[in-house]
């Protein structure tokens, strides 16, 4: 097999090229090739300087993440980089695309760095639960100083070439032909007999003060709660400041290995690949033709419609927004404008962009104006009769081939499709609130949805900055179906003796941004109440029994919007405060229902709230509503703030142990007979085989 790395000569300059698509990741073959080509260049007397560059779209974008967790194959990346740094001839990195992670560390092992103006450079290892483990934490501070290095290593965000130049990370920015620029730079180095510039020999510039590390740690403590890697990154940079280079490298290695073996990094790497994998729908030919989507319409300018329209305007796609009344249209537009202006105030977009985006949203009251759009997303009231009226109209006016999508969160997408003569063109696009912010999009495939409609909507999700996950039709789809089970269990735990704040704390401590009750206060308690009341009217035999949360709603406690829900809220403050009034209502409920409260342990809360979701997730997989466990994981990460360092509900279950979870679920089912606790057949099968969902 030919090597992915080659050496050629341009007069007296050796050029080492890496060719390992798609991103020139530093797999074993690349490391070996880099080492061999350097040795050849050093042995060639005619070569006076060496350039390292990537072929295709990028300089190496990092170590090969697929190799992590497998036995290491020599040569190790830090050793290869040390050899580059020790080179007796000047080495210049010529960077285009994205020099990330190990890729940037290779560049830091060189004497000089030349970058194309469009290049981006960064150390994103922290996002995989790691730290730069090939000298990055030791060399970068010697080039850019402690504070800038902390920003790049702990933040993990890449910088553009111009910013890298300003930091001193890049020596020259080139526009046009990178290799030509790098050759000219190398020629200059040779002609001027410029000295080697080994970063290991440089002192760290600037004085950041002795407390810089403690300050930095404090500044990230809240945002990075539960993550391990950011704090290890700080420790590694501190080693650069306090130890000689060699010892610093050793400390970096220890911290890196610790992270590499941690469950947090395993989870974060799982999420990296899962996020990319969800776009590849099993059974859907990747060459399925796509329909063109150039113009879009949104029906309804309420909470969801407005946010959905913003996504398209943000992506530069014109969007018509239809309402029944002028007043509702104006209200919706005003909310959108306010949102954009707030973003502009924070400096994230310019005033000009506000106007450009507003101009892309065209309000209308007439269906007749929707004849030319390629996609319509309906976001009107959650009521089947209203949906029927809307889809009948869309069927009448929309051109053949237009995709008709519904944002319904609970209604049957197949029934909605049946209101049209073209069910093959209908599917669900379930956005999450706030729709302009939340990254998750559950794309719901109907019984008759055509493959090209699915492929088009999955592609479009990415185009508008969403992570689209394909799911099937069922009540609540994947995310809300699991969430509702957790919520019901949380309520039962309070019935039996736990306090709402105890339940919330257990899930907050697991890493959720908030507990189930703070979440229902944020969403509005009346939403669930209305659904339950509807069910009680329509299907009393199967409707949920009344519980203490119904009484809160009837007492006017709707959540944050009334400053009172399960918790109290002070004006302008979202912090939940336990409420004596609510305690009273709960006590009354218990006594009315003959319940003697008991002490409930945190462990029981954790198990019941989480295991019930695992069981439901397994049922969802069994029914084919989600194709793979990783689809469920991505939904929980991007739709509900599930802690990334736990990898998603199903990945978390694997880490706890599927057998252990199955046995507990079986035990609870035997005790309660509650159908929600009937172990899923998939779960039982995996437990029996000693397997996990993802492994
Ligand atoms: N290793 C292995 N595969 C990688 C990879 C890596 N470092 N980076 C990307 N890939 C793969 C992706 O899985 C994807 O594979 P697929 O086509 O089979 O799904 C393919 O390359 C293309 O990736 P994207 O779909 O993400 O392509 P984009 O063009 O959108 O983005 C990118 C390109 C910006 C390079 C992005 O892939 C990225 O951010 N990659 C990760 C970079 C990173 O984290 N580097 C650090 C690695 S850890 C490290 O270096 C440790 C060291 O310090 C010792
Ligand atoms: P909303 O009540 O805020 O907005 C609905 C809008 O639709 C109103 O402005 C109303 O005037 C308009 N409307 C009603 N009938 C119409 C018709 N025939 N033609 C045109 N416009 C009409 O409701 P919201 O919250 O935006 O929900 C809309 C849909 O999105 C529902 O199906 C809901 O289940 C779903 N959804 C809601 C989420 C949320 O968190 N609010 C999350 C995900 C989905």
TrEMBL record:
Pfam families: 3HCDH, 3HCDH_N, ECH_1. GO terms for biological process: fatty acid beta-oxidation. GO terms for molecular function: (3S)-3-hydroxyacyl-CoA dehydrogenase (NAD+) activity; enoyl-CoA hydratase activity; isomerase activity; NAD+ binding. Residues 295-471 form the 3-hydroxyacyl-CoA dehydrogenase NAD binding domain. The keyword Cytoplasm does not apply. CDD domains: crotonase-like. InterPro entries: 3-OHacyl-CoA_DH_NAD-bd, 3HC_DH_C, 6-PGluconate_DH-like_C_sf, ClpP/crotonase-like_dom_sf, Enoyl-CoA_hyd/isom_CS, Enoyl-CoA_hydra/iso, NAD(P)-bd_dom_sf. It catalyses: a (3S)-3-hydroxyacyl-CoA + NAD(+) = a 3-oxoacyl-CoA + NADH + H(+). Keywords: Fatty acid metabolism, Isomerase, Lipid degradation, Lipid metabolism, Lyase, Multifunctional enzyme, NAD, Oxidoreductase, Peroxisome. It is found in: Peroxisome. Residues 476-569, 605-691 form the 3-hydroxyacyl-CoA dehydrogenase C-terminal domain. Pathway: Lipid metabolism; fatty acid beta-oxidation. Belongs to the enoyl-CoA hydratase/isomerase family. Monomer. This is 3-hydroxyacyl-CoA dehydrogenase. It comes from Alcanivorax profundi.
């Amino acid at each position: 097999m030919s090597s992915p790395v080659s050496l050629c000569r341009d007069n007296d300059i050796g050029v080492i090229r890496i060719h390992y698509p798609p991103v020139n990741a530093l797999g074993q073959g690349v490391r070996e090739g880099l080492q061999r080509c350097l040795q050849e260049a050093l042995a060639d007397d005619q070569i006076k300087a060496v350039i390292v560059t990537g072929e295709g779209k990028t300089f190496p974008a990092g170590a090969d993440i697929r190799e992590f967790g497998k036995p290491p194959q020599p040569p190790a990346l830090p050793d290869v980089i040390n050899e580059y740094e020790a080179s007796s001839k000047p080495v210049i990195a010529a960077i285009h695309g994205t020099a990330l992670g190990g890729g940037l560390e290779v560049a830091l092992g060189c004497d000089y760095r030349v970058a194309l103006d469009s290049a981006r450079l960064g150390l994103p290892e922290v996002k995989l639960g790691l730290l730069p483990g090939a000298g990055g934490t030791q060399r970068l501070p010697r080039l850019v100083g402690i504070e800038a290095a902390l920003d790049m290593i702990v933040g993990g965000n890449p910088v553009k070439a111009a910013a890298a130049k300003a930091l001193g990370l890049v020596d020259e920015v080139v526009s046009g032909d990178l290799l030509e620029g790098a050759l000219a730079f190398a020629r200059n180095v040779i002609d001027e007999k410029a000295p080697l510039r080994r970063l290991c020999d440089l002192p760290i510039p600037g004085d950041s003060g002795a407390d810089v590390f403690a300050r930095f740690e404090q500044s990230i403590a809240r945002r990075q709660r539960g993550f391990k890697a950011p704090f290890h990154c700080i420790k590694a940079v501190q080693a650069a400041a306090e130890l000689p280079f060699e010892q610093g490298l050793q400390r970096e290695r220890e911290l890196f290995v610790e992270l590499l073996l941690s469950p947090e990094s395993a989870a974060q790497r799982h999420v990296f690949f899962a996020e990319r994998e969800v776009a590849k729908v099993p059974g859907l030919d990747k060459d399925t033709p796509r329909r063109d989507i150039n113009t879009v319409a949104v029906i309804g300018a309420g909470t969801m419609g407005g946010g959905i329209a913003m996504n398209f305007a943000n992506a530069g796609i014109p969007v018509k927004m239809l309402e029944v009344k002028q007043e509702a249209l104006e209200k919706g537009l005003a909310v959108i404008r306010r949102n954009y202006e707030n973003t502009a105030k924070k400096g994230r977009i310019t005033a000009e962009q506000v106007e450009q985006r507003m101009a892309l949203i065209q309000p209308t009251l007439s269906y007749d104006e929707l004849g030319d759009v390629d996609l319509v997303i309906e976001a009107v009231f959650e009521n089947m009769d209203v949906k029927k009226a809307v889809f009948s109209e869309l069927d009448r006016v929309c051109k053949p081939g237009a995709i008709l999508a519904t944002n319904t969160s609970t209604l049957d997408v197949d029934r909605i499709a049946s209101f049209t003569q073209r069910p093959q063109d209908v599917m669900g696009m379930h956005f999450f609130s706030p729709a302009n912010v939340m990254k998750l999009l559950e794309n719901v495939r109907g019984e008759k949805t055509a493959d090209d409609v699915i492929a088009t909507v999955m592609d479009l999700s990415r185009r508008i900055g969403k992570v689209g996950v394909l799911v099937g039709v069922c009540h609540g789809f994947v995310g809300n179906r699991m969430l509702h089970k957790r919520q019901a269990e949380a309520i039962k735990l309070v019935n039996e003796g736990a306090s709402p704040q105890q339940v919330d704390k257990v899930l907050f401590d697991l890493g959720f941004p908030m507990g189930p009750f703070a979440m229902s206060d944020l969403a509005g308690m009346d939403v669930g109440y209305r659904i339950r009341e509807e069910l009680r009217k329509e299907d009393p035999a199967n409707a949920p029994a009344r519980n203490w949360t119904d009484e809160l709603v009837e007492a006017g406690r709707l959540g944050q919007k009334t400053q009172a829900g399960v918790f109290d809220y002070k004006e302008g403050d979202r912090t939940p405060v336990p409420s004596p009034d609510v305690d009273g209502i709960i006590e009354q409920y218990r006594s009315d229902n003959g319940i003697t409260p008991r002490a409930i342990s945190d462990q029981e809360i954790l198990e019941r709230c989480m295991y019930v979701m695992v069981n439901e997730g397994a049922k969802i997989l069994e029914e084919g509503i989600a194709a793979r466990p990783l689809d469920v994981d991505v939904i929980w990460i991007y739709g509900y703030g599930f802690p990334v360092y736990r990898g998603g509900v199903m990945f978390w279950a694997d880490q706890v142990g599927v057998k252990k979870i199955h046995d507990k679920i079986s035990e609870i089912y035997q005790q309660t007979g509650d159908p929600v606790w009937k172990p899923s057949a998939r779960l039982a099968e995996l437990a029996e085989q000693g397997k996990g969902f993802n492994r």
